Structures are given as C-alpha cells and as structure tokens.
Amino acid sequence: MNSLFVLFLNLGGGEVVVILLVILLMFGGKGVPNIARALGKGIREFKDAANGIQKDVMQNTGGITNTIQEHIQEVKKEVDTLSDPK
Fold this sequence. Notes:
Radius of gyration: 27 Å
Low-confidence stretches: none
C-alpha cells in the first residue's frame, strides 16, 4: 500500500497532463467543474472532521495538563524548602 502511494506522488508534469486529458475526455468540459466541486467539498469536510477531533483531544487533555502543572509546582516548593537551610 505504501509503495503504491509513493509511486502516485512520483508523477511528472507529462503524466499529470495525460491524466487531466483523460479526465476531460471521460467527463467532458461540463463535468469537470462538478468533479472539482465535489472533491473540494470532500476535502473541506475531512479538514473540519480532523479539526473537530483535534479540538476534542485538546479539551479532554486540558484537565490533565493542569493537574500535572499543579503537581510540578508542589514538587518545586518541596525541593525549595528542602534545599533552603534554616
């Protein structure tokens, strides 16, 4: 699967032109904008979903981060009191 993806990304300018010509011949001039519109909509929905997941993860881990910071501050205070000769 990964090798197929790498081969897909290794396209030159000529190959891209040939692919675009084949798409134009298959779907015609009126069909290409519809395909581009649908592709753009799909990419936008994917990005929105990814951003939503990222937002949920950040919200759910925010409490953990605060708890860890509080513990770090407590440990620093204990270290300071132990190293302070009184």
